[in-house]
Amino acid sequence: MERIVIIGSGQGGVQVAISLRQEGYEGQLTVIGAEPGLPYQRPPLSKAFLKTGDAEALRLRPATFFEKNGIELVDGVRVDRIDREARTVHAGERSFAYDHLILATGTRNMRPPIEGADRALDLRTLEDAARLRAALDTPKRCAVIGGGFIGLEFAAVARGLGHEVTVAEAASRLMARAVSPETSAHFLTLHEGMGTTVLLGDPATGIDANGMTLASGARIEADLVLMAAGVVPNTELAAEAGLAVDNGIVVDAQLLTDDPAISALGDCCAFPDPATGRLVRLESVQAATDHARLIAKRLVKGADASYAAVAWFWSDQADSKLQIAGLSSPADDTVRRGDGAVFRFAGERFSAVETVNDAKTHMQARKKLAFSPIQRSQLEAVDFDLAAL
Ligand SMILES: Cc1cc2nc3c(=O)[nH]c(=O)nc-3n(C[C@H](O)[C@H](O)[C@H](O)COP(=O)(O)OP(=O)(O)OC[C@H]3O[C@@H](n4cnc5c(N)ncnc54)[C@H](O)[C@@H]3O)c2cc1C
After folding, report:
1. Is domain 3-108+231-301 classified as CATH 3.50.50.60?
2. Using CA positions, which residue lies closest to atom 53 of ligand 1?
3. What is the residue-averaged pLDDT of the chain?
4. What pLDDT does 389 receive?
5. Ligand 1 centroid vs 311 CA: distance in angstroms?
6. What angle do CA 233, 236, 237 make, to 5 degrees?
7. What share of the chain has pLDDT > 90, as a percent?
8. How far apart are CA 360 and CA 210, in angstroms?
9. pLDDT by residue (tens digit) across 343-352?
10. What pTM was estimated for this model as a whole?
């Protein structure tokens, strides 16, 4: 293989370029990214960066790394078409031929059909975060649409800096898609304890120059409205090229699309969950980097291993570090251990553990989940002591 092209220079796109070189790939390697400048990590955008404004600290690698490793970084260029027959991608007047193409296009913020939605600020890119940070320069009344990870991380920082904060969440609890009711309740107490107003089950219906209106008719006066209502995967390029898309670019257990010359990874792809075989799409650094490593091994070494990494995730909100090991569904059953660790079960199968400021249990859970499936009865027999299992 002589030419590998990667579309997207985020966490996964850059990691796959790094891993390809680490595995010994010596051919041409091009990473094309729509955003300008050097690739950066997003997680600190809703955490440390809002406080420090230190963009250098976000860089995934310095410019010299790309030069030294023969990785051509084409920044500020959006690919607009994939020609699968000619094995070429097009970006305006420019074109890039490939033997293998890797799609790492990530997601973009969802804009729910709310009147005045254009007035809201986003928190997805470095540019978005810099704009928000500048807005927090003087005391503000902040309204946040969405009580998910990003909305709540922003709320914690803004409140910590002394701003007035209101979070409006359409669902009846916080982070409902990703965590148990017990963990939602923990974070509701945390945010309310900080003085943030949290309104649940009341979606925003309108944004105007003075704030926002909720479905109940409630008015939230605000100087700044942040839209953190979730994301949509960037799948259009793949769909237009005739690849299968189902809430993400569909890939198999080797992360190959239905075209053997095209792989996809990270936030933009829907892959079979190793535990259940269900197609899932994750928005996490872990998935993007583990996908990247598997693809690099396959392309360089011909390894045909199936993706089997245990999903894990973190979110920092004020002094609470939430960590999730494994992958649960909202309907999963919940057992809260005496020390607060939350165990999730899909029927009898142990699916995930949620912890707050408990790295030890999180690491134990990641290790245990990596082996053969564990049943609820096995955990009950040892009083949920993972080390004893
Ligand atoms: C504010 C924030 C906080 C987060 N916090 C956490 C956290 O605490 N823990 C965690 O695990 N995850 C967190 N995440 C999620 C994590 O950042 C993503 O899961 C990760 O970045 C996914 O990597 P990716 O490469 O798939 O996509 P991205 O990093 O989103 O990169 C995709 C890139 O592709 C580019 N692109 C798209 N289409 C094209 C095109 N046609 N041509 C060229 N380029 C294109 C985009 O511009 C983008 O730069 C956070 C995300 C955000 C926004």
Report:
1. yes
2. 124
3. 97
4. 87
5. 17
6. 115
7. 97
8. 46
9. 999 999 999 9
10. 0.97
Other C-beta atoms lying within 10 Å of the C-beta of residue 224: 20
How far from 158 is each of 141, 194, 210, 234, 292, CA to CA, in Å?
Answer: 10, 11, 19, 29, 34
- Print burial letters for 175-188: b (CB count within 10 Å at least 16), e (below 16): bbebbbeebbebbb
Give 333-374 pLDDT, tens digit per residue: 999 999 999 999 999 999 999 999 999 999 999 999 998 889
d(C-alpha 141, C-alpha 221), whole Å = 7
Q: How far is the CA of 107 from the centre of ligand 1 (A)?
A: 6
Question: What single-letter amino acid sits at 326?
Answer: G
Whether 282 contacts 311, CB under 8 Å? yes
**Best substitution site from 285, 291, 293, 317 to test ligand 1's pocket, by max atoms within 8 Å of Cβ?**
285
Residue whose CA lies nearest to ligand 1 atom number 49: 10
Q: pLDDT value at position 371?
A: 82
Q: Quick one: which atom of ligand 1 is closest to the CA of 33?
A: 44
Between CA 276 and CA 351 the distance in angstroms is 10
Tell me if 35 CB under 6 Å of ligand 1.
yes
Tell me which residue has its CA closest to atom 11 in ligand 1. Answer: 284
Residue range 40-47: mean pLDDT, rounded: 98
Q: Sort strands 107-109 and 312-317 into parallel, antiparallel or unpaired.
A: unpaired
Assign 245 a pLDDT band (cuts: 50, 70, 90). Answer: very high
Nearest to 23 by CA among 359, 302, 274: 302
**Spans of all domains in the chain:** 3-108+231-301, 111-227, 319-388
CA 310/CA 368 separation, integer angstroms: 10
Fold for 111-227, please state it. FAD/NAD(P)-binding domain (3.50.50)
- pLDDT per position as a tens digit, 66-101: 999 999 999 999 999 999 999 999 999 999 999 999
Instruction: Just give the CATH number of 319-388.
Output: 3.30.390.30
Q: Is the CB of 146 under 6 A from ligand 1?
A: no
Helices (H) and strands (E) in the chain, counts: 10, 25
Residue 154 has pLDDT above 90, yes or no: yes
Q: Is the confidence at residue 326, as pLDDT, over 90?
A: yes
Evaluate whether 3-108+231-301 and 319-388 have a shared fold: no
Between CA 328 and CA 343 the distance in angstroms is 10
Which of 373, 309, 296, 366 shows the shortest CA–CA distance to 1? 296
